[in-house]
Each structure stands twice: as structure tokens, then as C-alpha cells.
Amino acid sequence: MEERLAQAHMVAGTDARVLITGESGTGKELLAKAIHLASPRRNKPFVAINCGAMAENLLESELFGHEKGAFTGATSQHRGPFMAADGGSLMLDEIGDMPIRLQVKLLRVLQEGLIRPVGGTEALPVNVRVISATHRDLHQLLADGQFREDLYYRLNVVHIEMPALNRRREDIPLLVAHFLAQIAKESGARKIYAPEAVELLATADWPGNIRQLQNVVRQNVA
């Protein structure tokens, strides 16, 4: 993990787009936040959206925003994460699940620095640093025609791979300490793990990666 954090720190000082790949639960969003917090944009918003969590028509209006009355149910204007993250960083999680039609629209935003909300007639300037992430094999998606090559190269300026947790067991004690510190901050009560317990965690299999480890730590100290 230290190697990835060092790589993240190096790229944080630039505005280069970053593509983070790895299995689900390996800490891709944690790394994206670390890049943002180490960057000159740290005092501006960090916004994340999951591109695979909603239907195509909903994703379009959620991602690019919409005007009031743009479609049935659009009773008010929605700015969308590009505008919400203006000046800061936008994480496009599960970018590999984005439909081709929306990939075209995203590519145009990245090329022009302008966004046109659904139902809008005016293109609005946006200033965001885009960090994308996926658990899918983008090279295979490219070969299958499910992901645009031009968008891939726009997003993949710097590539960071997050290996599965069982391939970096040396990170587990550090992660446990981090989660305990989070819990203490939330609850106001200091929690500790015996060294023997941390050793057991470090030797266990973690098919759910960091997310599973975090859940186990929280359950054990609840």
C-alpha cells in the first residue's frame, strides 16, 4: 500500500487524470480520496458517483444534471456531480459499466471542459479533476467494443492498480489501526486490538478485501 500511496502522492500535485483498477473492495475510493486530499484541490469538494448503480437514463441526468421540466418527474433543477465538484475532484466509480452512449457524452465533456445538462440549451464550463475506477478488465471491454478507445486514453493518463488484500497482507495491521482510529473518532471511545488478534486477521483470507476487513473490525469492537 505504501507504494500505491507514494504513487498517489506523486500524481496528486498534477491535474493528470487517474485510472484506478482492482477487485471490488480493494480501497479504490480510499486511494482516490487520498489523491484529492494531497492535491492543490484539497479545499474544494470531492464527489463520487457509481456509474454502474443505476439505469442509463437515470445515470445521464444524475451525472450531467438536468433542468427543471426536462422529463417527467424533473420537478426541480439538478446540478449533477460535475457542477457539485467544480474546482475539486470527481470520482467516476465503476466506469467500465458506463453505457457507450454516455461514454460519448463524457468524452465530449473531457475534451471541451463544458457540460450540457439534460434539457439544457447552454453549455456550462466545469473545472474538475477526474479520477475513474473499475473492477472490470477494460482491455477486454475494448476488444469487445463495449468501451471507447478514445475515452480510455483520456481517462488512463496515470494508472494505479490496487491488488487484492491477500496479496498485500503487510497492509492489514495498518488498515486495522486506521479503522480503529475512525471508530474512535465517531464514537469518542478508544478501541484496541490485541496483537494476537491482529496477527490472526493478517493470516485470514479476505475475498471481500478491505471492505470485508473493515466490516469485521467494526463488528468485533461494537
Automatic annotation (TrEMBL):
BP terms from Gene Ontology: regulation of DNA-templated transcription
Any single Pfam family the record assigns to this protein: AAA_lid_14
CDD domains reported for this sequence: AAA
Keywords: ATP-binding, DNA-binding, Nucleotide-binding, Transcription, Transcription regulation
Residue intervals of the Sigma-54 factor interaction domain: 1-222
SMART domains reported for this sequence: AAA
Signal peptide: none
PROSITE patterns membership: SIGMA54_INTERACT_1 (PS00675), SIGMA54_INTERACT_2 (PS00676), SIGMA54_INTERACT_3 (PS00688), SIGMA54_INTERACT_4 (PS50045)
Gene3D superfamilies (UniProt xref): 1.10.8.60, P-loop containing nucleotide triphosphate hydrolases (3.40.50.300)
GO molecular function: ATP binding; DNA binding
Name this polypeptide is given: Two-component system response regulator
